[in-house]
From TrEMBL:
<keyword id="KW-0288">FMN</keyword>
<feature type="binding site">
    <location>
        <position position="163"/>
    </location>
    <ligand>
        <name>glyoxylate</name>
    </ligand>
</feature>
<feature type="binding site">
    <location>
        <position position="243"/>
    </location>
    <ligand>
        <name>glyoxylate</name>
    </ligand>
</feature>
<feature type="binding site">
    <location>
        <position position="246"/>
    </location>
    <ligand>
        <name>glyoxylate</name>
    </ligand>
</feature>
<keyword id="KW-0560">Oxidoreductase</keyword>
<dbReference type="GO" id="GO:0005737">
    <property type="term" value="C:cytoplasm"/>
</dbReference>
<feature type="binding site">
    <location>
        <position position="128"/>
    </location>
    <ligand>
        <name>glyoxylate</name>
    </ligand>
</feature>
<dbReference type="InterPro" id="IPR012133">
    <property type="entry name" value="Alpha-hydoxy_acid_DH_FMN"/>
</dbReference>
<feature type="binding site">
    <location>
        <position position="22"/>
    </location>
    <ligand>
        <name>glyoxylate</name>
    </ligand>
</feature>
<feature type="active site" description="Proton acceptor">
    <location>
        <position position="243"/>
    </location>
</feature>
<feature type="binding site">
    <location>
        <begin position="75"/>
        <end position="77"/>
    </location>
    <ligand>
        <name>FMN</name>
    </ligand>
</feature>
<feature type="binding site">
    <location>
        <position position="154"/>
    </location>
    <ligand>
        <name>FMN</name>
    </ligand>
</feature>
<dbReference type="InterPro" id="IPR037396">
    <property type="entry name" value="FMN_HAD"/>
</dbReference>
<dbReference type="GO" id="GO:0016491">
    <property type="term" value="F:oxidoreductase activity"/>
</dbReference>
<feature type="binding site">
    <location>
        <position position="241"/>
    </location>
    <ligand>
        <name>FMN</name>
    </ligand>
</feature>
<dbReference type="InterPro" id="IPR013785">
    <property type="entry name" value="Aldolase_TIM"/>
</dbReference>
<feature type="binding site">
    <location>
        <begin position="274"/>
        <end position="278"/>
    </location>
    <ligand>
        <name>FMN</name>
    </ligand>
</feature>
């Protein structure tokens, strides 16, 4: 299968339709889901020629973690709905691609088991701060012990997004035999439901900073004023995301938000982004506009549903090859050489 959209079609054929809808869908009228991809199509690339750049090198280092390409695995929930091995298969594929996997707090395999299944994988842990901070701390300790190298704190979810198609399908909970294995304090008998709380504030970010030595990445920042506040609160990186259009509908496309956030951050910390990346050229556009790296959510799920670990490995390899090819055609030796002049709005 030559392209990500082939994996999406294969995943659609294989998944229970309600599960496909859960993975593919978004909030409200899915304005933001569509906008994320459409915004990349509206950006044009303006290559340079005769630069003698040679074959590009794709490696990046983020917060001390090395990745062989600037494409990370975004945190997504419920991988066992797509494949029986679930997050273990995803982690093995990420390790094979030598990239970073951000393990979701809503994973269906415990973070300890994900780490054990993929020795050598670089894992970061995604956290939804729970109002019970003692419980939050227990989960953070589990992630640290499992060897996760950064904490990705998702801040775009003071409440669950409303996804009409899930309501129509009656998709509310995981089937029998699957649970969110990271939602306990070390005693697997004590699994709790995820509590998304509108009471979470900057104070919680400060508490987390004091709680752990792991670098903190703030995921789901879209407003430049919040980017500046995040710097005041000492975060190690920002992660521009609208949750793939699954939280507040009608938020702009993330690639359109990037320039303002990058300007607000002024190079103080790395800026990651996700939303709508389906091609190597999308990666190149986002990085030209100032992203230090990008992440992919649904493409990984499509790989997992279509072909398990091999499917994810293939999706990541495809993106790697496409980024390399796009950089070559832009006349560049590295993603670090990307700059805004390579992108035009059309
Ligand atoms: C099925 C699904 C589950 C997700 N679960 C989580 C999650 O548990 N935590 C989180 O921070 N983001 C979650 N996200 C958002 C992703 O991390 C990411 O922001 C989004 O998928 C990026 O857009 P893309 O799918 O177009 O690449 C989820 C996204 C999808 C599609
Ligand atoms: O579906 C999601 O996008 C998501 O982030 C999530 C969060 C908690 C539990 C399950 C999924």
């Amino acid at each position: 299968m030559p392209a990500i959209r082939d994996f999406e079609a294969a995943a659609r054929d294989r998944l229970d339709p309600a599960h496909y809808d859960y993975f593919a869908g978004g909030a409200g009228d899915e304005v933001t889901v569509k906008a994320n991809e459409a915004a990349f199509a509206r950006l044009a690339l303006l290559p340079r020629v005769l630069r003698g750049a040679g074959s590009p090198r794709l490696g990046v280092t983020l917060l001390g973690s090395r990745a062989a390409m600037p494409v990370l695995v975004a945190p997504t929930a419920f991988h066992r709905l797509a494949d029986p091995e679930g997050e273990k298969a995803t982690a093995r594929a990420a390790a094979a691609a030598e990239t970073i996997m951000i393990v979701s707090m809503a994973a269906t395999v415990a973070v300890e088991d994900v780490a054990a299944a993929a020795p050598g994988a670089t894992l970061w842990f995604q956290l939804y701060v729970q109002p019970d901070m003692a419980f939050t701390e227990a989960v953070v300790r589990r992630a640290e012990k499992a060897g996760c190298a950064a904490l990705v704190v998702t801040v775009d979810s003071p409440a669950r997004g409303r996804r009409d198609q899930d309501v129509r399908n009656g998709f509310e909970d995981l089937p029998e035999g699957m649970r969110c294995e990271n939602l306990h304090d070390g005693d697997p008998e004590s699994v709790r439901p995820i509590d998304m709380s509108p009471a979470i504030s900057w104070e919680h970010v400060d508490l987390l900073r004091r709680m752990t030595r792991l670098p903190i990445v703030l995921k789901g920042v879209t407003h430049p004023a919040d980017a500046r506040l995040a710097l005041d609160h000492g975060v190690s990186a920002l992660y521009v995301s609208n949750h793939g259009g699954r939280q507040l509908d009608t938020v702009p496309a993330t690639v359109d938000l990037l320039p303002e956030i990058v300007a607000a951050v002024g190079g103080a910390v790395p800026v990651l982004m996700d939303g709508g990346i389906r091609r190597g050229t999308d990666v190149v556009k986002a990085m030209a506009l100032g992203a230090s790296a990008v992440a992919v959510g649904r493409p990984v799920i499509w790989g997992l549903a279509a072909g398990g670990e091999c499917g994810v490995a293939r999706v990541l390899e495809l993106l790697r090859d496409e980024v390399e090819h796009a950089l070559t055609l832009c006349g560049l030796a590295s993603p670090h050489d990307l700059e805004p002049g390579l992108v035009r709005r059309c």
